[in-house]
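protein under study:
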Amino acid sequence: MASRRRPGAPADFEEIRPNLFLIHNPALGPVLRGEGERAGFHFHLTSWRRAGLLGRLASRGFVTLTIPDRIAALPAPPSTQLGPLRRLAISAKQLLSVLDLAAPNGWRNLPATPDGALELPEGQIVRRRHGRGPAEYLRITATGWQALPADEAILAAYGQLPDPPTLRLAPTAEGWILPDLPLPEAYRKVLDMIAQPHPAGWLLAGKLEREWGEMVVAKLGVKVGAVQ
């Protein structure tokens, strides 16, 4: 059950990890009795009645902020219509790439033509690197390119994927591994609440974590499937 939270209203009960909440309003204490374990301002929900508890808190006027609320508030990729091809001169030290979730790091390098040029559609989001320097993000324009903040560019790049592949969650003894993906910072912050860092990406340790991890990726328009 989604919590009844007014936009901008401070939360009385805030979820910071799956079923782990911060109590910002001690007046809701009586409603929590018998539903879990409390340690100071932290409350660990152990009851299976999660939806019922959130509903009772809402009916008493308390404002709750859950992880699904945060996922629902994430910005969706904008829809983009690409324009005509534009020819760009690229120096030998520049490496341009486009978002491609099938690539090892999520970005597919674009090889320049023999004359050191590239043809890309107007509006295309690209990542640019000079040698081993930091990445920059650009939007191709009619006259060249426009620099963009990383979060804006990455989000827009997801909206340009022609046919997003289905990501596979690899099962392990600890749960499921979600591959590491280029993500806007707001997405990473929410995923940090759900998953644990893993050398292969993100570890979703339980069924709830897996469900919510899939919801995060789905906000980007990407399908998720499990490896059997």
Observations:
- The first helix runs from residue 29 to 32.
- The chain is about 25% helix and 35% strand.
- Confidence is low (pLDDT under 50) at residues 1-7.
